[in-house]
Amino acid sequence: MVFFDNMGLLAVTPGMVLMWVIGLLLVYLAITRQYEPLLLLPIGFGIIITNLPLTYLMEPGEGLIWRFYHYGIEWEIIPPLIFLGLGALTDFGALLAQPRLIFLGAAAQVGVYVTFFIAYAMGFSLQEAATIGIIGGADGPTTIYLAAKLAPQLLGACAVAAYSYMALVPVIMPPIMKLLTTDAERKIRMEKGRKVTPREKLFFPIFAAMVIILLVPASAPLIAMFMLGNLFRESKVVERLNEVAQNSLMNVVTIFLGISIGATMNAENFLRKEVIFIFVLGLFAFMISTASGILLAKLMNLFTRNKINPLVGAAGVSAVPMAARVVQKVGAAADKKNYLLMFAMGPNIAGVIGTVIAAGIFISILK
Amino acid sequence: MQVAFDVFINGISGVFVGLGVLYVAIKLNKLLAGREVVKKEQ
What we know:
The structure holds two protein chains of two kinds.
Chain A: H1 2-5, H2 14-33, H3 37-50, H4 64-74, H5 78-89, H6 93-97, H7 102-107, H8 110-121, H9 126-133, H10 140-150, H11 155-167, H12 169-180, H13 183-186, H14 198-215, H15 220-235, H16 239-246, H17 248-263, H18 267-270, H19 273-303, H20 322-334, H21 341-366
Chain B: H1 2-33, H2 35-41
């Protein structure tokens, strides 16, 4: 009977069942633990439905989710739109008040390149190694953007690894922070930054876009949208656009992003030993990035009178604002009245820009 | 391996140069746009 021939139930494979379990696990973590729920929930659901047989949802040219994926991610539409929203949500005040903290965001990219090198030595191609390394930047949209450009076959695994580790920032970072700092260092109280004028905040996105794009043209799609979103915010004359970029638009693209990423993770693509390596290397990248930010802060303290609390260096990984909140929490555990959150936001935002620059450099050399 | 090493060196130095130039841009921005408010406050 034709009905039975076309029934999906008969085409289920053990690999698909395993993928359902993985999808359900992500849905569970998103709902009960609230681990990056805005993304892990649609990703988990996307994994489940793409691993239902005979749906052809990811059939090139035909499938519904394939269209979301193709026009949203392959055409590089969605990650820049998310950056537009992030720019509209970002206050650069902390960075402008203490610009020296920008270098902590640069140091945190060391993990990206160290992991790139190790992944290549382990047998991944240059493009795949770059995509794995960028997980260390802890920036989901940048990871997706780079993966779509250099190694689309790793997109699902790298995106899930990046968002998982971002969700696990409060678990992964504190042991590294405590290991690399003394109690006295954790108690360092930083001097308050100067007052930043509204005009400085208004000029900054224009200057920053020009400077970064002139240096790394390949970073233009992400940086341009990031700074445009911030210009919406700081200009104070396009409140409607600012509001849409921060909320409605961001929410809409997040839906399409999440389900598209989940749908790339079919059993044949995902159930490979390389995926385990990606998760291990991604975690390693993230840990090295955290450590290198702290170590640079300690190094800077050797040459400056106005000391930096080295914990702030850990916020150089992007993961905004979670990493900064963790810095505040660990700092407050050493000294209740030490408020590090505003200081940590500087390297945190610098980390976002640093990860985009790192991705731009990968693209310009390896594409 | 040579290409990987080149990417490694170019990448790390590129990120520091990129953010270093941004640091200079922030300082210039302060000179250009940070003054006005100080005058007003005086």
